[in-house]
Amino acid sequence: MLQLLHIENIAVIERADIELDKGLTVLSGETGAGKSIVIDSIGALLGKRVSRDLVRSGAQKGFVSAVFTDLPRALRELLDELALSGDEPDTLYVQRQISADGKSTCRVNMKPASAAVLRQLAPYLIDIHGQNDGQKLLDEAHHIEYLDGYAGCAEILERYRPKYQALVTLRREITALETGEQERLQRIDMLTFHKEEIEQAALKPDEDEALAQRKAYFDHAGKIAGALEQARMALSGDDEIAGACELLDQAANAIESLREVSDAFDGMAEQAEEVRLLAADLRDSVASQGDNLDFSPAEREMVEQRLDEIYRLKQKYGGTIPEILAYLEKITAELDTLENADDRREELREQYRDMLAEAKGIAAELTEQRRKAAKQLESEIVRELSELDMDKVKMRVAVRTGTKLSAHGCDTVTFEISVNPGEPEKPLSKVASGGELSRIMLALKNVLTAGEDVGMLIFDEIDTGVSGHAAQQIGRKLSAIARKKQTLCVTHLPQIAAMGDHHLRISKSVRDGRSYTDVSPMDRAHRVDEIARLLSGEEISDAARKNAEDLLDAAGQGA
């Protein structure tokens, strides 16, 4: 159960600490006071998507936290599995912070977690029936989900859906292979041409870089030859001018002669010899390079032609040689598939037949389980509705089985109802009024959650379109539900408000030019005033107070 809810800087709520207890808690207040903000805050703790607009204007961040107790065994096991168990095994702490830039952070038992983890925990914590869920009930596409939840089809669906997805993939591949023969042959011709052109080029990785360097060599032939000749002249000299090597020889010999005079010249002589030898090596290298210069016009033409060929292939098949080779690998595989299309098609058809038989077998299991559960669900909903002032109602959960598979098997499910004696059952969307829809939704919710581990139910204005005696019956039903599961109900109806074991009032005020929303628990006297307001509006009469007293007494909510 939810024991404590803390809200800070969320919309118009600057700060609120809400203590909750077992039983039925009702939440009331004027329209726009902030009741939906409390529900949205709880939704944030359950991992629902949040917007930065949720953060109070002027605040850097909003914050919501909650304390849950009396955790079901399945939840404790899940927390252990996720390594999120706390020091108190039967208590869960959940926090979510929303920044003004839209980012959010989550913690579970003070440990970092993600919103996805919160969504994993949510089915064990709180089930929220929102104001739009009634419209969801009118959409027949959701009826099969309601029935599957009641029938416990999750395990069968886990086996069925991978088979169905595999069938969809196989059918898509078969269809692709069954495209027109002419298109297939044209594709083969085109890819064959591409393959042969690339293979004939015999490309090598980084070949273009090596060729580009060789081309640069040819492009600078004059500069290379001139520089080498200049270096040769400087090092070797000619008949008239001594080169650097000859001068260094003279210097080395002169210094060497000094070694006879003193050992002090030994180091200098060794230096001179080293420089002389280095210069001689450089002279030989320059001479060798000069003798071996090769500026063959034929080779230059070959390099340029090869670069042009590579450039052309890059324009057609990829920006680099590795990309061209990757394209070659890709089209080779595609060609193999296209050229062996008949064999591949028959192989896939055989796989499809086998997979289809398996999927239909599992779909038949789904149908059987749904049909068994449908009758029971009908009777339970009818029983619940009879307690909600709809004792003449007839309900049918129609399971229709076709031959075509879908994501749900072979079945379609429709909730059909008759609210007037003698009238045949018709789809909900064609029969149910707003008030009837609210009661049907409440009945369905009560039946579906009866066996679930969820610790708390929240009904956000389940009373839409309801008044009078029907409202009283809804109040009694909520009270009965609350004896089994902690229940929170947002309501505008005095009959329902009076049934609460606890009553919270949401009020909005303006202080220093800013709006503030407060959440306050109420004692008997304040409950009388609040219920009287719900009965008569802002001008509370003595008669309204008396009526409120009577409603509380009738509900067993004494002083």
Task: Identify the quaternary structure here.
Answer: single chain
Give the DSSP E fraction (strand runs of 2 or more residues).
Answer: 15-25%
Distance between the termini: 26 Å
Secondary-structure content class: alpha/beta
Shape: elongated
What value does the Rg take, in angstroms? Answer: 43 Å
**Unreliable segments (pLDDT under 50, ≥5 consecutive)?**
none
Question: Could you tell me the mean pLDDT?
Answer: 87
Count the beta strands.
15
The order of strands across the largest sheet is: 2-1-4-5-6-7
Please bin the fraction of helical residues.
55-70%
How many distinct helices? 20
Q: Any key phrases for this structure?
A:
15 strands; alpha/beta; 56% helix; 6-stranded mixed sheet; 559 residues
Please describe what this structure looks like.
- The chain is α/β, with parallel strands linked by helices and 559 residues long.
- It has a domain at 155-368.
- It is 56% helix and 19% strand.
- The chain has helices spanning 35-45, 73-81, 115-125, 133-138, 143-151, 154-177, 181-201, 207-219, 221-236, 244-258, 266-291, 297-317, 321-339, 341-386, 428-431, 434-449, 468-482, 494-497, 524-536, 542-554, and strands at residues 2-10, 13-19, 24-29, 61-69, 91-99, 104-108, 111-113, 126-129, 394-406, 409-418, 426-427, 456-460, 486-490, 502-511, 514-521.
- The strands form three sheets. A six-stranded antiparallel β-sheet has the order 2-1-4-5-6-7, with helices on one face.
- β12 (456-460), α17 and β13 form a beta-alpha-beta unit.
- It is elongated, with a radius of gyration of 43 Å.
- The two termini are 26 Å apart.
- 28% of the residues are buried.
- The mean pLDDT is 87.
